[in-house]
Amino acid sequence: MNEESKQGGVGDGFLCSTESPEETVALGRNLGKLLKAGDLVCLFGELGAGKTCLARGLVQGMGAVEQAVTSPSFIMVNHYRGRFPIYHIDLYRLDTVADAEDIGLRDYLSDDGVALLEWASRIESDLPQDRLDIFLSHISDTEREIRLVIRGKRHRDMAAEIAAAWEIDGI
Ligand SMILES: Nc1ncnc2c1ncn2[C@@H]1O[C@H](COP(=O)(O)OP(=O)(O)OP(=O)(O)O)[C@@H](O)[C@H]1O
Ligand SMILES: [Mg+2]
User: Fold this and answer.
1) Is the CB of 78 inside a 6 Å radius of any atom of ligand 1?
2) Mutation test residue for ligand 1: of 52, 74, 89, the one with most atoms within 8 Å of CB
């Protein structure tokens, strides 16, 4: 782990892996149960890494169980209604920060709901400090490494909750 991703402090991160898309959804669902209105989840990883798959679980865990979660690639933002509003945003096609302003990104990063940002790397320098970063990477066709980094004060409690819920140690 590099210095930059340690920003949240040692003990604020978790590393795990999944062996199927279903396992990634299940992991997202467990994590989604811990999210609260105002949280921001940034998803990083190459094409096909599993960001949308994990987002599907997160949305379910936030209580939007009946709603099919699809990639918002073309329309950029999908709205779901769980325990609070959920904004699932895909920045893949975003070229400049001016575009982020164009789609009103700031409005989605508000206290009333949770934003899930795919391709958050597109606006990395512009991201709020308080957030949960999730890095996904390919290990094989069916395996993915998933690393969580909890950044900022707001998410500190989450580290303890994740450790308890998943029974895994932080990194
Ligand atoms: N362990 C796994 N976890 C998640 N997805 C997996 C896993 N194993 C295989 N897959 C497959 O990898 C693909 C992940 O696709 P997904 O759309 O979630 O990726 P993505 O990161 O959102 O890509 P994009 O950048 O195009 O939006 C799916 O086809 C899924 O079935
Ligand atoms: Mg996707």
Assistant:
1) no
2) 52
User: What's the rounded mean pLDDT across residues 54-71?
Assistant: 92
Q: So where are the chain's domains?
A: 12-145
pTM of the model: 0.89
Are the beta carbons of 81 and 67 closer than 8 angstroms? yes
Closest by Cα among 100, 158, 151, 160 to 129: 151
Q: Is 122 in the pocket of ligand 1 (CB under 6 A)?
A: no
Decide: 55 and 88 in contact? Cβ < 8 Å: yes
- Ligand 2 center to residue 16 CA distance, Å? 20
**Confidence band for 110, pLDDT divided at 50, 70 and 90:** confident
- For ligand 1, what atom is nearest to the CA of residue 46? 25
118 lines ligand 1 (CB under 6 A): yes
Query: Rounded to the nearest 5 degrees, what angle is found at the Cα of 24, between the Cα atoms of 21 and 30?
Result: 145
Asked if pLDDT for residue 154 goes beyond 80, the answer is no
Q: Is 142's C-beta closer than 6 angstroms to any atom of ligand 1?
A: yes
Q: Which CATH number fits domain 12-145: 3.40.50.1820, 2.60.120.10, 1.10.490.10, 3.40.50.300?
A: 3.40.50.300
